[in-house]
Amino acid sequence: MRDMIWIYAAFILLLSEAWSLGPGTNSTSPSFNDSSIGGDVVIHSAFNKGSDVNLTCSNKTWNETLYVIWTIQMKYRIECKISLDDGDRRVDTCKDGKSLYTSSTQSYLHIPAFTNGDEGVYKCESVYKGGIDRYEINVAITVPPRISAWLEKEDNKMVAMCKAERGKPAANIFWNHEGNLSDVKTSSDKDGFFTVESRLEISEGMNTENLSCAISHPYWSEEKVLEPKLTKGHVTWLCVSAVAGLVFLAAVVIFAQKKLMILRQCQQSDSSPSKTAPTEDVEEVEPYASYVQRVNSIYNSSADLFT
């Protein structure tokens, strides 16, 4: 009954106090923006992926608090509630690892290993002796993108590409060399992750050895610098082309050598008959001469018989 009286008195008084979001034991420092709407405090806060997050909604000590209730509307789940009163009575319809804890000074909502699914609007009511605090905390996640850079051929031109993929929020890309920057494309998927792609046309004769792109993102304390190189597929194509060219050149050389050998053989065959012709005549004439001599000897023998 005493609790109900205090709650009724708290709602009648409708007293509000302004205070800031405490980081508690977060492993990352949140970014936030506070504003007041109709006595409620609205906060926009972002936390790194995988960090442990503690949210508070009053600067009153727990000894002064009658109860605290969190109404949570996450992006991919239905609304749920987590509450705790001064009699240690708890309610938890979320059942996803979030918990209300109390310390010697105040209570806080603990979110372990913050993920993309924890994004949403966290509304809190903290009723204390003499007043009530209401907060609306819009919680977002900070996710580092996957980054890459490469060179590629496009319409007989060399183009440098720099890409920051599936980050949240969107990354920023800068080039260290002036060129014909055609466009920067930014797209998002169904989960709210952003992909940014920057394209730099390289002018003819430009030295690409010192070319680099810098990518900045709230998750990192420093920019990431990448030097674009020819893609593996393009390098493989160049190697195949070079090998094919060498094979073709070797084939041409072999073909030319064979043609030259055939030509030399033909020249030698054209010059050899004039030297060997007498020998061939002798070989063909000698049998006839032998026959004539035998015939003559026969005639001579016959003449001797008749004389």
TrEMBL record:
GO MF terms held by the record: signaling receptor activity
Organism of origin: Sparus aurata
Taxonomy, superkingdom: Eukaryota
Keywords: Disulfide bond, Glycoprotein, Membrane, Receptor, Signal, Transmembrane, Transmembrane helix
InterPro entries tied to this protein: CD200R, CD80_C2-set, Ig-like_dom, Ig-like_dom_sf, Ig-like_fold, Ig_V-set
Claim: NAD is one of the keywords in the record: no
Protein name as annotated: Cell surface glycoprotein CD200 receptor 1-A-like
Subcellular localization, as worded in the UniProt entry: Membrane
